[in-house]
């Protein structure tokens, strides 16, 4: 602030700025769910074209959950080919779908893609594993390290461990060998 400006002048300027900010038109908030539904629809169109090219049958379902669009493809016999071993093909297809959405909207997408129920089934198994290991660590007091997992898989295990009293989990290592370690609380 220049030396020749008085406290009263500064206060008057501050009040004028505050009034200007109050009088500014308020934009209507954009509904995040509407944007996520739009992402899901763009993804569904992209995936529908892919299924047509591959001549695969499948029904596409859209949902919004946890602040992200969820797109699921179910119903066709050949769909397991889009999952691959340990979900590698599914992860690649999800990233391609996210890029297609980004190209259309201009915004990075966090959509989650599931094919043939693979991710849902994997989530159930990993949640059970996390709970089982956490309960074992709580009773034995010995830490346990799990096999390396993807970030998606680690999050599911961390969430399951967090529900068990007396233990906590951490991630150790560098990708692709990053793993969850379950430890007793001190």
| Cα end-to-end separation | 53 Å
State which percent range the strand residues make up.
15-25%
| N-to-C SSE string, H for helix and E for strand | HHEEHEHEHEE
> How many domains is the backbone divided into?
2
CATH H level of the largest domain: which superfamily? Answer: K homology (KH) domain
Give the biggest beta sheet: 3 strands, mixed
CATH topology of the largest domain: GMP Synthetase, Chain A, domain 3
Rg to the nearest angstrom? 24 Å
Instruction: Assign the CATH class of the largest domain.
Output: Alpha Beta
| Global outline | elongated
Q: What is the correct CATH architecture of the largest domain?
A: 2-Layer Sandwich
* SS summary, helix count: 5
Q: How do the strands line up in the largest sheet?
A: 1-2-3
Share of residues in helices: 40-55%
Total number of beta strands: 6
Which structural category do the helix and sheet elements fall into?
A: alpha+beta
Low-confidence stretches: 16-29
Mean pLDDT: 86
Walkthrough of the structure:
InterPro entries: Jag_KH, KH_dom-like_a/b, KhpB, R3H_dom, R3H_dom_sf, R3H_KhpB. GO terms for molecular function: RNA binding. Pfam families: R3H (PF01424). It is built from five helices and six strands; from the N terminus they run H-H-E-E-H-E-H-E-H-E-E. The protein is of the alpha+beta class and 186 residues long. It folds into two domains: 85 residues, GMP Synthetase, Chain A, domain 3; 65 residues, 2-Layer Sandwich (Ribosomal Protein S8, Chain: A, domain 1). The strands form two sheets. It has a three-stranded mixed beta sheet, with helices on both faces. About 8% of the residues have low confidence.
């Amino acid at each position: 602030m220049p030396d020749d400006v008085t406290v009263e002048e500064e206060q008057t300027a501050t009040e004028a700025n505050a009034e200007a900010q109050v009088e500014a038109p308020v934009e209507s908030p954009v509904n995040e769910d509407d944007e996520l539904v739009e992402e899901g629809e763009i993804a569904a169109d992209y995936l529908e074209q892919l299924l047509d090219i591959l001549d695969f049958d499948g029904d596409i379902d859209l949902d919004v959950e946890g602040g992200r669009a969820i797109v699921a493809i179910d119903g066709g016999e050949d769909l397991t080919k889009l999952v691959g071993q340990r979900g590698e093909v599914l992860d690649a297809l999800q990233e391609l779908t996210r890029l297609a959405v980004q190209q259309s909207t201009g915004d990075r997408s966090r959509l989650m893609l599931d094919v043939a129920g693979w991710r849902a089934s994997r989530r159930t198994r990993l949640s059970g594993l996390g709970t089982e290991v956490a309960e074992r660590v709580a009773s034995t007091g010995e830490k346990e390290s799990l096999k390396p997992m993807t970030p998606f898989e680690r999050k599911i295990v961390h969430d399951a461990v967090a529900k068990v009293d007396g233990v906590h989990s951490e991630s150790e290592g560098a990708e692709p060998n990053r793993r969850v370690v379950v430890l007793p609380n001190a």
